[in-house]
Specification:
Blueprint (H helix, E strand, L loop, with lengths): L3 E3 H6 L1 H11 L2 E5 L2 E6 L2 H10 L3 H6 L22
Parallel strand pairs: 1-2
Antiparallel strand pairs: 2-3
Length: about 80
């Protein structure tokens, strides 16, 4: 579980916060009792960036690639029912 730091404490002890991130993982910073920021290592940030793919890549990797879909609208019911 990440440690929580009040904003003022995180500002005053930034080197310590950075060391905690490196040693123990993400650290949470709060402002007026609300969690507002998570500090992560560059390594974790790079992993997150790497795991993101574009919408186009998502569709290219879909199991539905090559499937023929019937996209015709059902004409059984009137367009404007009322």
């Amino acid at each position: 579980m990440p440690r929580k730091w009040q904003l003022q404490e995180a500002k005053n002890r930034f080197s310590r916060v950075v060391n905690e991130v490196i040693a123990n993982g993400p650290q949470v910073v709060t402002r007026r009792g609300e969690e507002v920021v998570v500090i992560i290592s560059k390594e974790e940030f790079e992993l997150l960036k790497k795991s993101q793919s574009s919408l186009l890549d998502f569709f290219r990797q879909s199991p539905l690639v090559g499937t023929r879909l019937d996209l015709e609208r059902d004409q059984t019911y009137p367009k404007d029912a009322g």
